[in-house]
Specification:
Chain lengths: 124, 134, 318
């Protein structure tokens, strides 16, 4: 089942549903890459709050989505990782190093705004 | 309570999701807490994925078990794939170095209470895991 | 009555066929007891109502049984179950269903807070009433009457054994629940200001407590929408590599939820010994004391700009 991706200004928002299989995740990766390029998006929010499991494949794919988006000029924030899921990921040794995370959609938007603004001013 | 066995054939990545769901159902029935449900489902996701990626085809058998008044879940993941040449290396815990784990096996072991692996090159791999309610 | 505790009691009491046979062996129950019980079956069934009244009237006169006798709902249920039990006691079928019936009554007694000793006394009073009737009926053949009564008493002791086991199991469960509550209470998470939590940890951290701490912290991060947690471990008894790993994992999990964790109270000694043990402390931000940690936290929260001066971001960078 494909994940719906909403466009909100210069941001893309995708809410992942539960029971996503590998193909769905790969499809999401391609679609976000395509849309970021087409709409010149500055930010992406991936909401994983429904997911009850984030295994190694899902984690790797999320990281890849963020990296691909960044290459095309958009920052990605993963939001909504649940406490149990976070604990399981850490025990499994999975990290989202280098990827921004936030508690929920609201926090994610604030973080995106701060990050995008920051990179505007940032650097020398 | 009779220990029912649930067989989940693992052929495609969609079956990984089925295995997780069936495990969750059984574990809920056994009486595991919410966070334990997530740990069990995650461990199963990893071993099921290994079957899909390395062995093409295999099965996961789930059952409720009991010992001295404690209830638990037994998970057997078997395949007739290529087998793991160096089990010790595959089970080496690279967690503290932060390196991502190739097969997710040490991770799965951390999530469960008991973990055994038997593997023979050319014959296949059988992983047996158990988790107990507190 | 919910199914949850009942099922777990049954499992814990191990009422499989083997266990049932052992319980019968404990009371020396034999095949010929069945016919002796059958001989007084109609007597017990006929007088079941009266025996029930005897049982509950006795309890009504005991202060300590108020939990049951003054709870109309539980009392009605107990009377009904007791009546069914008395009938079942002389039917001769003492398998799993029979045992489950006893367990159900035991759970009810436990819910009513019925003391084991009080229960035993009341049960004795009931059996005595039965015995009096049996001897009256068998006045012409007292030896037979006595044997029948003894056979019935074996089943009575089987019942007692089960109900006592249930009462004990339920009490253990209550103690465990209370212990969990105490553990939770002993580690409060304090909200200092918006987005900032303080988690002071005192005492020994074993893996069970570490899990509780982590779950509690993550739950608070979610509920209070915290961006920074200052975890103070000044009061932690011994910080070895195991404890350090628990902390590292807790910090990593918090980061996945968008919160930064500052660990304070790490003395130079502790830091040195951890590094010597090979623990990678780079993944967690440590400060010497709580004050320093709080200042750092406020500094972090005050930042809007993310990439200025290489300073740390206000948000969780996983």
């Amino acid at each position: 089942m494909p994940v719906p991706i909403l466009k909100q200004g210069d941001k893309l928002i995708a809410s992942l549903q539960s029971d996503l299989d590998d193909k769905d995740l790969m499809q999401l990766k391609d679609e976000i890459a395509e849309k970021v390029g087409r709409f010149k998006s500055r930010g992406v929010i991936l909401d994983v709050s429904i997911l009850d499991v984030l295994d190694s494949f899902a984690t790797r794919t999320l990281r890849t989505i963020a990296e691909t988006a960044r290459l095309r000029g958009a920052e990605t924030v993963i939001v909504g990782i649940q406490p149990d899921v976070a604990v399981a990921m850490v025990q499994l040794g999975l990290t989202l190093d280098g990827v921004l995370t936030a508690l929920d959609f609201e926090e994610g938007m604030e973080l995106l705004l701060a990050t995008i603004e920051g990179s505007h001013h940032g650097g020398g | 309570m009779v220990a029912e066995e649930t067989y989940v054939p693992i052929d495609r990545d969609g079956d990984i999701v089925s295995a997780r769901q069936k495990a969750r159902e059984l574990a809920t029935h056994v009486g595991f807490s919410g966070s334990d449900l997530t740990l069990i489902a995650t461990a199963i996701s990893e071993v099921a994925r290994n079957i899909v990626v390395y062995a093409d085809h295999g099965e996961i058998v789930l059952s409720a078990v009991q010992r001295a008044g404690q209830r638990g879940i037994l998970v057997i993941a078997r395949d007739e794939g290529p087998g793991i040449p160096d089990i010790e290396r595959a089970m080496r815990d690279g967690f503290s170095t932060g390196r991502s784990l190739g097969l997710g096996l040490p991770g799965a072991r951390r999530l469960m209470d008991e973990f055994e692996i038997v593997s023979e090159v050319g014959k296949g791999t059988t992983i047996t895991m158990r988790k107990w309610t507190r | 009555m919910s199914n949850g505790p009942l099922l777990s009691d049954l499992e814990r009491l191990q009422l499989n066929t083997h266990d049932i046979e052992r319980r019968k062996a404990f009371v020396d129950f034999r095949p010929d007891d069945l016919s002796r019980i059958a001989a007084i079956k109609d007597l017990v069934v006929h007088n079941a109502d009266r025996y029930g009244v005897t049982f509950f009237d006795h309890l009504a006169g005991i202060e300590e049984a108020a939990g049951l006798t003054r709870n109309r709902n539980l009392l009605e249920q107990a009377k009904r179950l007791k009546h069914e039990h008395l009938i079942a006691m002389v039917q001769g079928d003492y398998g799993r269903e029979y045992m489950e019936q006893r367990v159900r009554l035991g759970v009810l007694y436990s819910r009513a807070g019925l003391d084991v000793r009080v229960f035993l006394g009341a049960f004795h009073v009931l059996m005595r009433a039965v015995g009096v009737d049996v001897m009256k009926r068998f006045a012409a053949a007292p030896a037979d009457g006595f044997e029948s009564f003894i056979s019935l008493k074996k089943i009575g002791f089987l019942d007692i054994g089960l109900i006592v086991d249930v009462l004990i199991a339920e009490r253990e469960r209550t103690i465990n629940v209370q212990q969990d509550a105490i553990r939770e209470l002993s580690t409060p998470v304090l909200q200092l200001r918006e987005r900032l939590l303080i988690l002071p940890i005192i005492g020994v951290i074993d893996s069970m407590r570490a899990k509780q701490l982590t779950d509690g912290m993550l739950g608070s991060i979610r509920d209070k929408r915290a961006r920074i947690v200052v975890m103070d471990i000044t009061g932690v008894a011994a910080v070895d590599s195991k404890v350090a790993n628990h902390l590292i994992q807790a910090v990593a999990a918090a980061r996945l939820m968008g919160a930064n964790v500052i660990v304070t109270g790490v003395s130079a000694d502790v830091a040195q010994s951890l590094v010597a043990l090979g623990v990678d402390l780079r993944s967690i931000r440590t400060m010497n004391d709580l004050q320093g940690g709080l200042e750092e936290a406020e500094r972090m929260l005050g930042y809007k700009v993310v990439y200025a001066d290489g300073a740390s971001p206000a948000f969780g960078r996983a």
